[in-house]
Amino acid sequence: MRIALLASNIDSIPPLGNGGTEQVVSLLADALVESGHDVTLFGAGDSRTQAKLASVHDTALRSDRNVRVQDWPAYEMRSLIKLQEMQDQFDVVHNHMGYQALPAMASLNTPHVTTVHEPIRPFCAPIYLKYSHLPYVAISEASKKLNYGDKLNYQTVIYNGISVGEFLSENTLDSASGQARKYLLFLGRICRDKGTMEAIEIARKLALPLIIAGKLDQADEPYFRTYVEPYLEPGKIDFIGEVDYSKKLDLFGGAIAVLYPIAVDEPFGIVMAEAMASGTPVLALDRGAVREVLIDTKTAVIGKSVGELITRFGEIALIDPKNCQLRALEMFSVEKMTARYEKLYQALMRARNIA
Fold this sequence. Notes:
37% of the residues lie in helices and 17% in strands. By secondary structure, it is an alpha/beta fold. It has two domains: 2-161 and 333-351, Rossmann fold, CATH 3.40.50.2000; 164-331, 3-Layer(aba) Sandwich (Rossmann fold), CATH 3.40.50.2000.
């Protein structure tokens, strides 16, 4: 198949730091190429991919200080124009850019599908509802339910995939004794929605070291100054900022558990799948897709409140790292994700009498 993957120009593919959508697009693009497909990725010019790269700017917009934030939409529109001009070269177009691309998707003659990666917020809901007839993919049943599952034309649910093999190591398999695991880990954007403050509360109540790794956006700096910074203490509560992929693998391998006390209904939460692939159990609040990704008492402790997570923390020691890794292999591998998308692409093409 000749496949076009449309991503945003704001961040590179894969991301230099955190970025769940960008990581998924990167893995999907490379896996499709390795499966023999002719793949073109529309995205930032500094993206690293096995696919052909179609870009309108040399670098990710976020990393180019010469491009103003208010000018970012113009580059996204230029990318959409480029896609429209090239559409006859593709059998199917897969939109990962989001709502900005929906008008362009509606104008294509080529079969296409949009994966809804993020929660549909009130400001963009009218756009999705205007184009409700277009084909969509949900990344979890929870995401489908939360994101107008009764109104949008969802074709299927396809879980995000990760490169499970990169997280597996003898260190994680041997760590059931607890010798290699010495701290709690919070990995994600520093903000109220991700529950950074709650992670600190859990670590302090349990008297365990906590490493906080993640991006701090300018808009979240007041939250950080009020609820995070006052509690930082070397060796006890450490904030190390955003980390690259290699460092993330190391952090998972040394963690007793990953803390996931989210304050919103997350549509997926790729950090949970990555933690399991590392053999690391998760301590998570029961929100969004948590129970689709994790299994209580088998790969995680899932609670209704921070207090319950603290009370039940001892159960973490009873979780076998191999159960975590098997769950990741069975449900969230890039191979499984890719196979499901290939099947969907073929169905979309048949519907247009192309296959």
